[in-house]
Amino acid sequence: MTPPPIPRLATGFVTVVLAGAASAQSTLDPVVVTATRSEQQRFDAPAAIGSVSGAVVRDAGPGFHLSESLARIPGVGALDRQNWAQDLQLSIRGFGARATFGIRGVRLLVDGIPLTMPDGQGQAASVDLRSADRIEVLRGPLAQLYGNAAGGVVQVFTRRGVAPGELGAELGAGSFGTRRHALWAGGAPGGVAAAVDVSRLATDGWRSHSAGERRLLGASLAVAPAPGTRLSVMVNDFDQPLGLDPGGLTRAQAETDPRQAAPAALAQQARKTVAQRQAGVVLEHAPDPDRSVSLRAWGGERDLWQALSLAPAAQTAPGSAGGIVDLDRRYGGLALQVSQRAALAGGRLQATAGLEHERMAERRRGFINEGGRAGALRRDEDNSVSATDAYAQLAWSTAAWTLLAGLRTSEVRFAIDDDFVAPGNPDDSGRQRYRATNPVLGATWHATDALNVYANLGRGFETPTFAELAYREDGSGPNLSLRPSRSLHFELGAKWRASPMQRLEAALFAAETDDEIVVAANRGGRSTFRNAGGSTRRGVELAWIAQPSPEWRMQLAGTLLRAEFVDGFGSGADAVAAGNRIPGVPRSRLFAELAWRPEAVRGPHAALELLRSGSIAVDDRNSDAAAGYTVAALRAGWRHPIGPWRLEGRLRLENLADVRYSGSVIVNESQRRFFEPAPGIGWFAGVALTRGF
């Protein structure tokens, strides 16, 4: 399929977002860095980029998932699956919606260190939301400059120790046996900024067989060894000793008893345990205001053990890898970036260039799942993937215009060494390499001091992940015939500051994709994939921010998105017609919030939230859909100083009307167990005690 011209891309459906802050600590025009890799006001960023403050993140829920706070960002679908064995479903403008586990099609970073592996798959569970300073979300063509699988970029920035220092503790509890406690400390004595945060999250789960527990430790240290130089060290330790998997339900099961677990999940004791440790170092040097260089290095390890709900008969078939996954993974990378500013032709030129190399190696074994216990060995292989990228970006600005051009070249190499060869299971070793060169062009017209108009056009690509290469539909061995999907993205936007306390943003966007990678089948927690031809995603985003008084703030965030297959594919009962909706993507999404937070250091504050989601198709054939829903939440809190101490309390009520709905779906589940029901009415309360120094 040949990508269409820009006029065709600029047609389609409309997404409306009215976005505002929900906390007095957030601002109407926060500083962001993800769009151009340098600090700038969000209003000046030449792209659609959203930001959520750390205060809002901590108010938005217990801190289990990014979905608690990302509903506030336009174009983002962050669906909590109520399943700690499968992570949340995260998509941006429809990219990443097909993921049945982990996160696909979206790049994840924490303080510039990637959580997305070189093959394009990431996990968000290890993000310590309690220690977040802010979250940025970049949508559109500029995200392609982040490389493989960058349908969008989510970057979390953690809090650093600042003067004066702070010491605090928090206890929380809620519905369904939810518990959370945390300790943190930070400060900057002698110019050395240090912070540490330790927390534990646990729940019995709303559904049967859905209990989980997570422990997180995050620490950072930053020093300035010389003028213009900064050295930062970050450490993260994530431990999930328990994550039960309730599985999906059929429509009849979900309507009869949405709290039940799938019978196969109970019989096979489906669950997951994970331990992940990661460290990163960032060295930044700016000899003068016009020059800077940064060097990043990171490394980590991830150990996973997972029991799938795969039927026993399916595990003994020739070529089957069994129903238990045992994975030991090691990964790391290096990145160098240089930036130079200079005067040019009556304007200012900023040139940025960088090199990145990252590698992941894993040993993956599979065993027969004998009711939750590991039986005979069925898979034993060593896998590795490496990615080497180079990028350059030029931005030339005058009082009236900013012109941007960028280019990124990528090479991703996969290697599979099969050590399990047996009758009916031949040597499935193999190699594959993918290459891409993706350009991005953009222009911003600074019409007035209060109005910016911008347009961006760029290409992107997405390789299959190891999980998608792992199995073929028609036999044993890896599916090395899968092709990467390639896309063309277009965006036309405007940002208007109506007053110091009001801001309006609008963006028309579209993306056309060739060789869309889709789920071919999903059986018992195991998925196979195939290329499906072309697809299209179209919409418009509009953002209005207003604060009518210091105490009152309002937020509305909504999305209308048309994501469809352009070409039909498959045959017989599995045939998919052209024009079918891409599953896992709601056509509409609206978030609204009214917040009252006086500036006084003591006293109450409160907010009312509303979330409306349209229906979600469950499979490529569009044979069924999860119905749309509207849910409301209320949060309240108080602050009370006690000498050098500050006492804070929070109460959050979810799903006030006790609406029954499916919050997410398992795409293309072969037994039609598509539906993952969401909880009814629930609550969470916490109290925190903090001392400043």
Question: How does this structure look, described?
Answer:
The protein has 7 helices and 40 strands. It is mainly beta. The chain has a single domain (6-692), classed as Maltoporin, Chain A, CATH 2.40.170. The radius of gyration is 24 Å and the shape is globular.
At a glance:
The protein has 693 residues and is mainly beta. Helix content is 5%, strand content 56%.
List the helices and strands and how they pair.
Layout: H1 6-9, E1 17-18, E2 31-32, E3 40-41, E4 48-53, H2 54-59, H3 67-70, E5 76-79, E6 89-92, E7 103-104, E8 107-110, E9 113-114, E10 121-122, E11 132-139, E12 152-158, E13 166-174, E14 178-187, E15 193-203, E16 212-223, E17 229-243, H4 251-256, H5 263-267, E18 271-288, E19 291-307, H6 312-315, E20 324-344, E21 347-370, E22 373-397, E23 401-418, E24 430-448, E25 451-462, H7 466-469, E26 485-499, E27 502-514, E28 517-523, E29 526-531, E30 535-546, E31 552-565, E32 588-596, E33 603-613, E34 616-617, E35 625-626, E36 629-642, E37 645-654, E38 662-665, E39 675-677, E40 682-692
Parallel strand pairs: 8-12
Antiparallel strand pairs: 1-31, 2-3, 4-11, 5-6, 7-10, 8-9, 11-12, 13-14, 13-40, 14-15, 15-16, 16-17, 17-18, 18-19, 19-20, 20-21, 21-22, 22-23, 23-24, 24-25, 25-26, 26-27, 27-30, 28-29, 30-31, 31-32, 32-33, 33-36, 34-35, 36-37, 37-40, 38-39
